[in-house]
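Escalated from tier 1: histidyl-adenosine monophosphate holo job.
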Amino acid sequence: MIRGIKGVKDILPDEVGRWQLIEATARRLAEVYGFREIRVPVFEVTDLFARSIGASTDIVEKEMYTFQDRDGTSLTLRPEATAGSVRAYIEHNLSASPTAQKLYYFGPMFRHERPQAGRLRQFHQFGVEAFGCAEPAADVEVISLLWRFFSTLGLPDLTLEINSLGEAGDRPAYKAVLLEFLKTREAQLCQNCRRRMATNPLRVLDCKVPECRAATEGAPKLTDHLSPHARAHFDAVLVGLQTLEIPFLLNPRLVRGLDYYTLTTFEVTCSHLGAQNAVGAGGRYDGLVETLGGSKTPAVGFAVGLERTVLALPGAALPTPSKLIYVASFGPQGAPAGRRMLYELRALGIQADTDHRASTLKAHMKQADRLGASLTVIVGDDEAAKNCVIVRDMTSKEQVELPLSTTAINLQKRLNTA
Ligand code: HAM
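Tier 2 regenerated the structure:
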């Protein structure tokens, strides 16, 4: 037997209700906030990710699914969708529009990480990207959508952590100060962090190894080295969040694993999730459109991990049971009458089903129970001969006889008023 790939999961019908609820909530809120859907490909040329996410990030260094196309071009399954959205934004000249371009997307992402609870190799994101607006109000709008999404779903025990990485120009001076500090702690750092000191010293602050965290406890903070503009931007974002009464926690260590960020970065964690507790994250990336060949365009966005959202979703947020009508028909006259009834119910948009293998009332009733039907329409030969059906309420067990010709419309009314 061929099995699925490690870290790549099937989402089975019993789990899909939770996914659909999350996706419908995301879509509805994104549209309420003025975002429009974009669908970008799941694979792109490798260089797009290397140039945007950063050559010395974990994602690009060791997590990408990269392969050669038949003509030798290096292609990569997208590890995230910001890069593809930016490429599409530039390629289709969306910047020509006089209004800000606010885009949202859903879809699978691919990272070759060590699989564990909440960390997969194929996982799914809902994300938004707002292009063209440098105002702190755009950061606040995006964060407020993220916060509202999680609150609407009723996710418990969330923390919004926020930081500013400053502008690109603030970074070199800070890196030098940080490096000086890290050199004094080098012996206590893990192998990976010692390597990062040369390639990407900011990432040392983000290391989860307890010894590294202890060693960098007193590290200089980037927020103490911000340019006046970056400081003012950050302060305005924090005031904006306070105005909307969105609680946040300043986290000067929040540097994120992607290199394109400037100014605001943020992450929402859920304390119920164990090690992989970030349910959503994002930030501003004012330099990325230009880096990828477009004109200078400010942008800010986030992505939510849908698997982690499913894990954190409280049981009570499950969709209400369906209003399924089961049709139990049998006998030479009853069976065809039942099939017509099924066809009619479905034409009215009513969720209706049967089990074509069942040929007795008993077998049908068993299946109706298993499928959780709210009503069962029974049509045997006797009923077909009398042009009627029996409708059984599966909860109260009450039965009524109804004329065959008006049953479907009757049931539609009944479901609408239930
Ligand atoms: P990210 O932090 O890499 O950011 O991913 C966002 C979210 O995706 C994480 O908070 C987590 O919930 C989920 N996630 C990431 N990796 C995995 C995995 N291996 N398994 C399960 N879930 C995972 C980005 O992807 C940026 N593109 C976000 C962004 C949009 N920034 C600006 N715009």
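Residues 80, 82, 111, 113, 118-120, 123, 125, 127, 129, 257-258, 278-283, 301-303, 305, 307-308 surround histidyl-adenosine monophosphate (CB under 6 Å).
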